[in-house]
Write a structure and sequence with these properties.
The chain is of the alpha/beta class and about 190 residues long. The protein contains 5 helices and 7 strands. Bound molecules: guanosine-5'-triphosphate and magnesium ion (MG).
Length: about 190
């Protein structure tokens, strides 16, 4: 089964750090097919990134995963639509810094708009919320963030992506959510 997982979140929230770390973890387990493709703007900000994993077995399913990040910067908005095409599941990387509260929220709203244009509803999508940068001195309380950034009441993972904390857990939960959703849907139709 082929699945597409997209990491979204505000600029500098840690999406690339997650995906690069995940690539390393999976590469060591020989689960990566090919190289990681990275495209950056002149200021080292993500334009687009993707990599493939071949035959990863999760919960008894043989999966081929395509993993991508969206660019966080607002001026790269048109690219986000391209990246979101055919997406099966999402990871919402939330910057725990109090200073980023508003921008986290705006990105959630904007992602909902992108999906709506594709005829999809963010609120009905398989999502995992990652509260990244738990190491910051101004990190918000998880309970406060849950109210603001987890309207799905879905799984969440506290993380320090830069140290690799929470990266694999987030990924595994995201894949499980996609599978549960796909199977629940096919059982009901
Ligand atoms: N303190 C701290 N810094 C982090 C953490 N995760 C990532 N960072 C740092 O945050 C900065 C931005 O990380 P990126 O992974 O490039 O962020 P991004 O979401 O891909 O940003 P864009 O590509 O611009 O949208 C980098 O300097 C990272 O080292 C974390 O858990 N704690
Ligand atoms: Mg990036």
């Amino acid at each position: 089964m082929k699945l597409k997982l997209v990491y979204f979140g505000s600029s500098l929230a840690g999406k690339s750090t997650n995906v690069k770390t995940l690539y390393k973890i999976l590469k060591e387990k020989n689960l990566v097919k090919g190289d990681m493709v990275v495209m950056e703007t002149e200021e080292q900000r993500t334009l687009f990134m993707e990599f493939f994993i071949s035959s990863i077995n999760i919960e008894g399913f043989e999966l081929e995963l395509k993993i991508l990040t969206t660019p966080g910067q607002f001026r790269l908005h048109p690219l986000r639509k391209v990246i979101m095409k055919g997406v099966d599941g999402l990871v919402f990387v939330v910057d725990s810094s109090k200073e980023r509260e508003k921008i986290n929220f705006l990105v959630m709203r904007e992602t909902a708009a992108v999906l709506k244009e594709m005829g999809e509803d963010l609120m009905r999508f398989p999502v995992v919320v990652q509260y990244n940068k738990r190491d910051l001195p101004d990190a918000m309380d998880i309970e406060d963030m849950q109210v603001r950034f987890n309207p799905w009441a879905t799984d969440y993972v506290p993380a320090v992506a830069v140290e690799g904390v929470g990266v694999l857990e987030t990924f595994e939960k995201a894949i499980k959510n996609i599978l549960v959703r796909k199977y629940a849907r096919s059982a009901l139709i």
